[in-house]
Amino acid sequence: MPVIDVQNVKGKQISQMELAEDVFSVPVKSRVLHEVVTMQLANRRSGTAAVKHRSDVRGSGRKLFRQKGTGRARRGDVKSPLLRGGGVVFGPDGRNYTQKVSKKVRKLALKMALSSKVLEKELMVLDRFELDQIKTQEFVSVLNALKLNNALIVTDSKNDHLELSSRNVPDVKVLRSEGLNVYDILKFRTLVLLEPAVKNIEGRLRA
User: Fold this and answer.
1) How many whole angstroms separate alpha carbon 196 and alpha carbon 128?
2) What are the distances in angstroms from CA 40 to CA 5, 33, 99, 110?
3) Is there a single domain that holds both residue 137 and residue 184?
4) Per-residue pLDDT tens for 109-140?
5) Scanning 43, 87, 96, 152, which has its CA 20 to 30 A from the CA of 71?
6) Which CATH number belongs to the domain containing residue 105 in this structure?
7) What is the extent of the structural domain holding 133?
8) Is 115:30 a contact under the CB 8 Å cutoff?
9) How far, CA to CA in Å, does 75 sit from each of 53, 72, 78, 81, 84?
10) Which residues face 175 on adjacent strands?
11) Rounded to whole angstroms, what are the CA distances from 130 to 100, 176, 197?
């Protein structure tokens, strides 16, 4: 069972805690992680790009000029794709990019992502992270004390002061435990978990 140090916001060790072996010590398979990350990124795509085809353009169906005798090319109505303002021939029509991965695989991938952070020693546990007010400067000073510059901070519950103070800090994201996902874990170099959030995550992934 992996054991990790619990630190305070000043970077000093105050205790240790045991992590669930079936959550934080799972063999990592890149194929599973890739499948879930690909699914997450695909599901974020809106797929709303679309054009108006000839039948979608509003305009008269009247023939612009007679077929013969003018010396010009033959023309139908103003909705022709050859004319400005006419329909588009081979443009996109909108597309659904959604992919599906079973709940079992998604849960396994989340365990693997957490285990990879433990294995690479890129997991940090804090006893708490409280700010007296919404102030980016105070948030940055805590990051400097912990020597963090690229981190995902996971809280156990809503924390407005922490979430709002971190909005303008680059390469840092604050996330609640119920929103924890594979892509964000792998995207950031260091995973910072608040001590109560660890229990929430273990309970969620053991259910």
Assistant:
1) 8
2) 31, 11, 8, 12
3) yes
4) 999 999 999 999 999 999 989 898 999 999 99
5) 87
6) 3.40.1370.10
7) 3-45+97-206
8) no
9) 17, 9, 8, 11, 13
10) 154
11) 38, 14, 14
Residues, the chain, total?
207
- Residue 148: per-residue pLDDT: 92
Distances (CA, A) of 151 to 35, 43, 84, 88: 23, 24, 51, 46
90 and 160 belong to one structural domain:
no
Q: Closest by alpha carbon to 154, among 107, 204, 106? A: 204
pLDDT for 70-92, tens place per residue? 999 999 999 999 999 999 999 99
128, 9 Cβ separation under 8 angstroms? yes
Q: Six-digit token pair at 46?
A: 């809106």
Give the CA distances from residue 102 to residues 46, 55, 105, 108, 129, in Å, rounded to whole numbers and listed in that order. Answer: 22, 40, 5, 10, 34
Which residues sit opposite 50 in a β-bridge? Answer: 93
The conformational region for residue 5 under phi > 0 = left, psi -120 to 50 = alpha, else beta, is: beta
pLDDT of residue 65: 93
84 and 13 fall within a common domain: no
**pTM of model > 0.90:** no
The side-by-side arrangement of strands in the sheet containing 13-18 is: 13-18, 3-7, 123-126, 190-194, 151-155, 172-176
